[in-house]
Design goal:
With 723 residues, the protein is α/β, with parallel strands linked by helices. The chain has a domain of 205 residues: Alpha-Beta Horseshoe (Leucine-rich repeat, LRR (right-handed beta-alpha superhelix)). The chain is 10% helix and 20% strand. It has 6 helices and 43 strands. It has a 24-stranded mixed β-sheet, with helices on one face. Strands 16-18-20-22-24-26 form a 6-stranded parallel β-sheet, with no helix packed on it. Strand 42 and strand 43 form a beta hairpin. It is globular and about 110 Å long. 43% of the residues are buried. The structure holds 2-acetamido-2-deoxy-beta-D-glucopyranose (11 copies). The site of one 2-acetamido-2-deoxy-beta-D-glucopyranose has 6 residues, from loops.
Length: 723
Amino acid sequence: MSFFFDPFVTFGSPSWLSTLITSALIVPFLLSEPAASATGVTSDTSDLSALLSIRAHLNPFTSLSSWDSHNSSIPFCQWPGVTCGSRKNPGRVTALNLANLGLTGSVSSDIGNLTFLRSLNLSFNNLQGQLPPELGRLSHLELLVLSQNSLEGRIPGTLANCSSLWRISLGSNRLAGEIPAELGALPKLQILSLHYNDIGGRIPASLGNLSSITHIDLVGNRLAGTIPPSLGRLQSLVHISVTRNSLTGAIPVSIFNMSSLSYLYVGYNQLSGTLPPDMGNTLVSLEVLQAFGNILEGPLPISLPNASMLRQIVLPYNRLSGPLPPDIGKLRYLSSLNLRANELEARKSEDWEFFTSLANCSNLQTLDLEYNKLEGPLPSTIVNLSTQLTWLGLGGNEVHGSIPEGIGRFIHLERLHLDQMALTGHVPAAVGKLRNLHVLSLDDNQLSGVLPSAVGNLTQLENLYLNGNGLQGEIPKSFGNLRQLTVCDLSFNKLEGRIPVELTDLTSLTRYLNLSRNLLTGPLPAEVGSFKNLEALDISKNRLSGEIPSTIGECQVLQYLYLQGNHLEGSIPDSLSSLTGIQVLDLSCNNLSGHIPLSFERLEHVRFLNISFNDLQGQVPNEGVFRNANVYSVTGNNKLCGGIRALHLQPCPGHLPGKDGSPAVRSLVSIVITVTLFVLSLAAASYLLHRQRTRKCMPVNVVFFTVSWTARGRANVTHRWAP
Ligand SMILES: *[C@@H]1O[C@H](CO)[C@@H](O)[C@H](O)[C@H]1NC(C)=O
Ligand SMILES: *[C@@H]1O[C@H](CO)[C@@H](O)[C@H](O)[C@H]1NC(C)=O
Ligand SMILES: *[C@@H]1O[C@H](CO)[C@@H](O)[C@H](O)[C@H]1NC(C)=O
Ligand SMILES: *[C@@H]1O[C@H](CO)[C@@H](O)[C@H](O)[C@H]1NC(C)=O
Ligand SMILES: *[C@@H]1O[C@H](CO)[C@@H](O)[C@H](O)[C@H]1NC(C)=O
Ligand SMILES: *[C@@H]1O[C@H](CO)[C@@H](O)[C@H](O)[C@H]1NC(C)=O
Ligand SMILES: *[C@@H]1O[C@H](CO)[C@@H](O)[C@H](O)[C@H]1NC(C)=O
Ligand SMILES: *[C@@H]1O[C@H](CO)[C@@H](O)[C@H](O)[C@H]1NC(C)=O
Ligand SMILES: *[C@@H]1O[C@H](CO)[C@@H](O)[C@H](O)[C@H]1NC(C)=O
Ligand SMILES: *[C@@H]1O[C@H](CO)[C@@H](O)[C@H](O)[C@H]1NC(C)=O
Ligand SMILES: *[C@@H]1O[C@H](CO)[C@@H](O)[C@H](O)[C@H]1NC(C)=O
């Protein structure tokens, strides 16, 4: 199965971390205060006029209404958000905190006149315009926090003059240009946070001069080129994130040599090369390794289990190959091992030792090994994995064997993916113990036996994929309890009996219900109208009988309805034409009789209407949808007449073209025509009947017709008709 659920969001931007660390470290920096005498400037009226200029650029300033020069009863040092020096520099502004006040407008260049400013926090507003280069005059500035605004333009290189800067936070703006190389000269900088901007160019090599830096956060920009090897010189660096950029080349070896580094986030770039074999011995502090969605190749480093602090190994969607380190279970803090969609191998039984050793990771919560090249029997030690597991994925590997009853131990599991393998045996009833399960995919295996009714105990289930197996017996009535279900795929099995009416209790179904290619009998329950939010319903290729219930017209959201290849009879309900969003309607290969509802002309979104190979009679409508012969087929209904010329059907009686002439001649002509028609249609009927038997009800003019599901949800339907 293919789905693109993004498994990384939970570990995505680590900005919470920087916030945490900053709030812990910030205070001591604001304690010491520079002396005014050192600068020679004393005038406090200049700070007043700078503040007034700042206010004048902000809009609306209701939140700053008490910033008022004409009211001398409040000195500006007591204005909200303004902090002045206390001992050495009374009357000089040292901190300006106007964060989260809903301010719009821009940052006045006169801010550069507040030369005693040490902390500037204007974050969480909607400030626009550019950052004034005059910020470079603030030589005492320690904190520059302007994140979460709409600031544009370049980051001024003059910031390099603020040699006291300790933190630069400009994340979540619209800053463009490049990272000024001059910033590498800031000797005290500890935090550089520029995430989610539009910054391009390369990462300047000069950042390797930031000898105090602990955090570099460049997530979500347009940075290109390689990661500069000079960053490996940063001996205090704890955290580097360059996720979601366009970086290329190999991760420099020097980066893997940093004993201080705890967090390495490089996902969603085009980084290539291999991970060095000894990285687990050199990155001794590493806790999180995230490099998903790159083109990394080669084996997972044999030494990785030596990086004893590791909690997360998140490397899906790369080209890693070879076997996994057999002693990976040494990582006692490991909580997430995500290696989905690589080329990792297990051929011999020794190659599976890693799996057994993972049983030692008692904090393991995510284990995703889907879509690799793991081969062999499903290890029996699967039941010894941590019961803390919330995500277990092994699907898309060449694994055989049966699902052990012990699977019921994983009571915290939210997602179980054992699809697209060669699993045999039954679906164990113990699956019903996994009460927290949201997604169960066991599709495309060779599972057999009766579908256990205990599956109906999984009341949190949202997606159920059991299709493409050999499951037998009836659909358990207990499935009606799955009140969170949005997708249910039981297609391509050997399920028999009636469609339980309880299934229509699943009003939560939104994306699709697929029961096609089974052996289901009996009627389509009249309660089918309760699928009020369902987009796609496929019950094709079963043995359903009876009439199509007219209540189906109540499925107002339905876009795809497949009922072909059953034994449905009676007439096509007129109510189908109230499915105004319907795009694909396939009723072919049934025993439907009566007329084509004239109201079908109104189905304006139809891209594919197939009513061929039934027993329909009378006139084919020729307006609306029926004007375009490319979107519908009525073949194999030998009693139909009329319709547009392109169908080449006989004109309907009573619609004969009238010609001049005497009544006698006219009636003679019409008798001749009628007899000819009768003979012709007999011939046509026997021909079609013959063909129908030999061709087994295949729509003749469909070349191909594919449905693919994006994100395991919305259908992409492509229908091509023969020219
Ligand atoms: C800021 O300082 C500059 C240069 O010293 C001066 O020209 C300007 O008038 C000052 N701005 C305000 C608002 O005082
Ligand atoms: C000055 O501000 C104080 C406090 O907000 C207010 O009570 C007073 O009326 C204001 N005076 C003038 C002249 O606006
Ligand atoms: C800036 O202000 C915001 C909003 O009040 C606050 O959450 C944040 O901690 C401040 N940042 C610093 C570095 O002081
Ligand atoms: C930055 O410092 C340099 C050299 O000390 C000086 O020439 C330049 O004018 C300064 N820029 C600002 C904006 O203060
Ligand atoms: C800063 O880094 C660059 C490039 O790595 C280097 O050429 C330069 O000499 C460094 N400057 C200082 C002052 O260390
Ligand atoms: C790694 O660090 C060691 C010692 O700290 C040093 O000798 C070695 O050159 C470094 N290797 C790289 C590739 O930077
Ligand atoms: C892991 O660390 C141990 C002890 O430091 C060392 O002996 C061993 O060689 C390392 N393993 C690998 C694969 O480098
Ligand atoms: C896992 O634990 C078992 C028993 O506690 C031990 O024998 C085994 O060596 C451990 N495996 C690893 C890879 O740490
Ligand atoms: C694995 O689990 C089974 C069943 O719970 C248990 O009998 C067995 O001792 C476990 N094996 C290890 C190595 O813990
Ligand atoms: C499912 O629920 C029923 C009724 O609550 C209970 O009898 C049965 O044991 C449950 N089955 C499983 C496998 O949990
Ligand atoms: C339903 O399942 C069948 C068989 O698995 C598949 O061919 C068909 O495309 C599915 N229907 C839809 C609407 O996806």
